[in-house]
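Morning - nicotinamide-adenine-dinucleotide inputs below, output right after.
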Amino acid sequence: MEYIDLAGHRVLITGGAGSGVGSGICEALYQGGAKIIINDIDSRNLSKASEKYPEALTVNANLEDPAAVEQMLFRIEEFCGGVNGLVNNAGIGLSKVAHEVTEEEFAHLYGVNVQAVWRLSKLFVRRCMERNEKGNIVNISSVHAHSTQSRYAIYASAKNAIVGLTRGMACEIGPLGFRVNAVGPGYVHAEQNYDLIKTWAEDPHQWVRDFVQNHQVLNHEINAVDIGNTVAFLLSDLARSITGQNIYVDNGTTSLIFNRDFT
Ligand SMILES: NC(=O)c1ccc[n+]([C@@H]2O[C@H](COP(=O)([O-])OP(=O)(O)OC[C@H]3O[C@@H](n4cnc5c(N)ncnc54)[C@H](O)[C@@H]3O)[C@@H](O)[C@H]2O)c1
């Protein structure tokens, strides 16, 4: 496979140690020659990431904790003098109708999916400016920023907040030489998903086949590196005139008004 050339890029990927979207982002950026710094709250997965990418810095930090974030940025500065790329990938889900969500659940979902993205982006911009360096931010949104379903109102609202933050920050810091974009994945398939899918579908393999057949325009499964390649493109100079955008990587899910079997 060919990868976008990212030589000279030093990029922090949050939530990058999981088996989901973050793994594909790390893969695409690493293969493109970027120096990658992988953050996660999960130390076991971070150890695995460190084995896979021995040259990378891995940092265990809870992004909801401002002190831990400051400490992480300090370690990154020691490691490589600071990053010029930031991928805000870490995120959590919530499957519950809005009228039953608790204050704690709402605060936690917004704490990770919105507030932490703003906090880290703010610190990233300030530090780049102190070093007189231009930078590039890519936020991971979701198809839920476009259209959603029952039990996802809070998650969808948070992902819409990310799209708004992306546009707004792009306007604010574009004149300073920064670009800010978002990537909105559709259903990203991974073998590990079958365990989760089992919680709502009797036959998880059939569920994935039905999803691909009925809810996507293209007939293949999206994999994590598909998301990573789009992130790599947006970080690269090939995207030098793109800012404030939210690009869906969804095999056409957001283009369908009805299921494909609707006639
Ligand atoms: N997987 C999909 O199909 C899909 C679709 C659309 C959008 N997304 C988005 O992609 C991103 C990654 O999701 P994923 O599905 O790969 O999930 P995932 O659980 O595999 O990855 C998320 C990672 O974030 C880490 N994390 C969670 N809270 C954290 C915190 N407070 N501090 C630091 N790290 C933290 C987790 O440990 C995990 O490794 C999320 O923003 C999600 O909303 C995923």
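Note: The beta strands are 10-13, 35-40, 57-60, 85-88, 136-140, 179-185, 246-249.

O.
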